Amino acid sequence: MYTERPSRLPGAVLWTSVPDGTGRVLPDGCMDLLWHDGRLLVAGPDTRAYATEGTGDRWAGVRFRPGTAPTLLGVPAHELRDRRVALADVWPAAEARRLTARVNAAADPVRGLEAAALSRAADTGPPDPLLDRIVAALDTGRPVARVADELGLGARRLHRRSLAAFGYGPKTLARVLRLRRALALARSGVPLAETAARTGYADQAHLTREVRDLTGLPPTALLG
Is the Cβ–Cβ distance between 108 and 61 less than 8 Å? Predict the structure, then answer.
């Protein structure tokens, strides 16, 4: 069972899961701070669906909005791309132990994770507003070169900023954001052919190829 709710940290989501069997975490441009069995881990940005196997153990996490986690966690996103690592592998051991103890001492791990995230945000300051502008511009479906020009970055600088903040280049981020838009439409009942047209795919076959490439399943199986 999976549940989520908005966090007091702007744009973040708090979630809990008790997986039983196999599952998939789809690419979304986000990074998570995870709690499981008293340990803290970091989930980097995914370029493909991440397969999970559950045995009924509880997981909890805070999912940061795209581009914000690297500043809070102090590590470039591309270093954690397609990886799940222990927090102690990212931070100094003593610092990781202190945060783990703080989360474990909370009445609920979710509350502990949120408190930790809010504390880090207070220490690091507000995120770079340019990152939200990059996401918003790419999420409209505009070409990457046009987005780079509109933001005054140039293609190379946009690519470097994207790697550090999102874990991959702007073209991959645009694919992930388009996938999210398409799945949201399809789940709302919009037919796949119309979904493809409204989200910028050439046709339904193109949508199907992209969904299969990024998630490992065709849309009909993913949405069924």
Answer: no
Q: State pTM to two decimals.
A: 0.93
First to last CA, the chain: 17
Q: Which domain holds residue 19?
A: 2-124
Please give the chain's pLDDT, 224 residues, in tens: 889 999 999 999 999 998 777 888 999 999 999 999 999 999 999 999 998 877 778 999 999 999 999 999 999 999 999 999 999 999 999 999 999 999 999 999 999 999 999 999 999 988 899 999 999 999 999 999 999 999 999 999 999 999 999 999 999 999 999 999 999 999 999 999 999 999 999 999 999 999 999 999 999 998 87
Q: Cα 132 to the chain's mean position, in Å?
A: 14
User: Does 171 share its domain with 110?
Assistant: no
